[in-house]
Design goal:
single chain; 131 residues; mainly beta; 10 Kd Chaperonin, Protein Cpn10, Chain O; two-stranded antiparallel sheet; 2 helices
């Protein structure tokens, strides 16, 4: 009688690429701790946005960015507050450090730390998490 051989396949580990945060900003994180449901965000530069999102029309012509003087409305989360109390319970933020987010154009405060422009935003002004 033959013995049955069962082959088992090992699951391949998938690596998740985390957004890059400069070493300079990592050194700032312990110095800045948002309160409540606020989130500290580093906005993307225009070059980072153009690299990721090149606007083209249906004919393949690259369109110049309208309003190039405007500030970015996308960024990366650097730090989080503990959350907000509702009905006596602490509600933790839904975003986490390293998430790429889209936020409201007018719902933030400018914070300059070591000549780096960062935004302090209430979590309710974050519109989406980019995957």
């Amino acid at each position: 009688m033959k013995k049955k051989t069962i082959k088992r396949h090992k699951a391949k580990a998938t690596t998740v690429k985390k957004p890059s945060i400069s070493k300079k900003l990592v050194s700032l994180l312990p110095q800045v701790m948002p309160l409540g449901s606020r989130v500290l965000i580093r906005p993307f530069t225009k070059e980072e946005l153009q690299k990721n999102n090149t606007a083209k029309n249906s004919f393949g012509i690259i369109l110049p960015e309208a309003g190039s003087k405007d500030k970015s409305e996308q960024g990366i989360v650097l730090a989080l507050g503990p959350g907000e109390y509702q009905d006596g319970k602490l509600i933790a933020p839904k975003v986490k450090v390293g998430d790429k987010v889209v936020f409201s154009k007018y719902g933030y405060e400018d914070v300059n730390i070591n000549d780096e422009e960062l935004f302090l935003i209430k979590e309710e002004n974050i519109l989406a998490i980019l995957k």
